[in-house]
Amino acid sequence: SQQGEEDPQALSIQEGENATMNCSYKTSINNLQWYRQNSGRGLVHLILIRSNEREKHSGRLRVTLDTSKKSSSLLITASRAADTASYFCATGLGGADGLTFGKGTHLIIQP
Amino acid sequence: SQTIHQWPATLVQPVGSPLSLECTVEGTSNPNLYWYRQAAGRGLQLLFYSVGIGQISSEVPQNLSASRPQDRQFILSSKKLLLSDSGFYLCAWTESGNTIYFGEGSWLTVV
């Protein structure tokens, strides 16, 4: 099954800086999604990018997708302490078996 | 609007005891339902998914089972817990097969 792997595993930056996380996957996909998980909580959907899209924006989030390289990036601009969380990419084919998640990038924003 | 409820939020169970985690979804009909497990510092592993009442698909062989007695109810069970069953269990649902919505999770510690 397709699988996303995030890079780096952990990232610590100063508040106000931009944070970039990358995701690589192995097989063809229908869409790629990014989720956020605060410590000890459920995952929250951030953004979905379809396989025929190259870039998508939502507020301070910018996602890119390069299907030729099987990779995606999530950029969080002007980071805030509240952005501290783990971020997961997930890939799927739109089928009933749902999404396959990577191990996540743990982002720490230093105030 | 749709909501998902999952309980209990935390539990500590002795080895060999039974387990029952429950999940219900409101505000939607015939959703696809999922149980994921997240070990400490790891990604999400899909355990079971269901596309309808009584229809359960298992992704990995394990000590757990799932049931869907009603359209919007999904139950994760075990007859005898193992130490390796400890983890964070997440129930989730989707309508379109794309974006997945998660519950708040259940922390299980087997001692």
Provide an overview of this structure.
The complex is a heterodimer of chains A (111) and B (111). Chain A is 0% helix and 55% strand. Chain A is built from no helices and 11 strands. In chain A, strands 2, 4, 5, 9, 10 and 11 form a 6-stranded mixed beta sheet that branches. A 5-stranded antiparallel beta sheet of chain A has the order 1-3-8-7-6, with no helix packed on it. Chain A is globular and about 40 Å long. Chain B is mainly β. Chain A binds chain B through residues 30-31, 33, 40-45, 48, 88, 90, 92, 94-104, and chain B through 6, 32, 34, 36, 41-44, 46, 49, 51, 57, 59, 88, 90, 92, 94, 96-105, 107.
What characteristics describe this protein?
heterodimer; A: 111 residues; mainly beta; 5-stranded antiparallel beta sheet; 11 strands; B: 111 residues; 4-stranded antiparallel beta sheet; 58% strand
Biggest interface and its residues per chain?
A-B, 24 and 28 residues
The main sheet of chain B comes to: 7 strands, mixed
User: How many extended strands of chain A?
Assistant: 11
Euclidean distance between termini CA atoms of chain B: 39 Å
Which stretches of chain B of 5+ consecutive residues score pLDDT under 50?
Answer: none
Rg calc of chain B: 13 Å
Shape assignment of chain B? globular
Strand tally of chain B, please?
11
Strand content of chain A: over 45%
Q: What portion of residues of chain B is helical?
A: under 10%
Write the layout of secondary structure elements.
The complex is a heterodimer of chains A (111) and B (111).
Chain A lengths: L4 E3 L2 E5 L4 E6 L6 E7 L5 E8 L4 E4 L2 E6 L4 E6 L8 E8 L7 E2 L3 E6 L1
Parallel strand pairs in A: 2-11
Antiparallel strand pairs in A: 1-3, 3-8, 4-5, 4-9, 6-7, 7-8, 9-10, 9-11
Chain B lengths: L2 E5 L2 E4 L5 E8 L5 E7 L5 E9 L2 E4 L6 E6 L2 E6 L8 E8 L6 E2 L3 E5 L1
Parallel strand pairs in B: 2-11
Antiparallel strand pairs in B: 1-3, 3-8, 4-5, 4-9, 5-6, 7-8, 9-10, 9-11
